[in-house]
Design brief:
Layout (H helix, E strand, L loop, with lengths): L20 H19 L20 H4 L2
Length: 65
């Protein structure tokens, strides 16, 4: 669960990709909404119904999937 693969961290310099202001704005909006949902005690925590989502999840042992 990372943006850059840790196995490649010291192999070569990370790629530099110019950021799009539109993309950054949309990401900020979505992230803000997601964090608000996480903090909302009125929204119950739930597991996903899609088991494929759990294949590479670092936290699957915590939720029991």
């Amino acid at each position: 669960n990372c943006i850059y693969q840790t196995t490649n961290i010291f192999v070569e310099q990370p790629l530099e990709i110019p950021r799009s202001e539109v993309f950054s704005s949309l990401m900020e909006e979505r992230l803000s909404a997601l964090l608000s949902e996480i903090r909302d005690k009125g929204t119950p925590w739930r597991r996903t119904d899609d088991v494929d989502t759990c294949k590479y999840c670092d936290f699957k042992t915590i939720c029991g999937k």
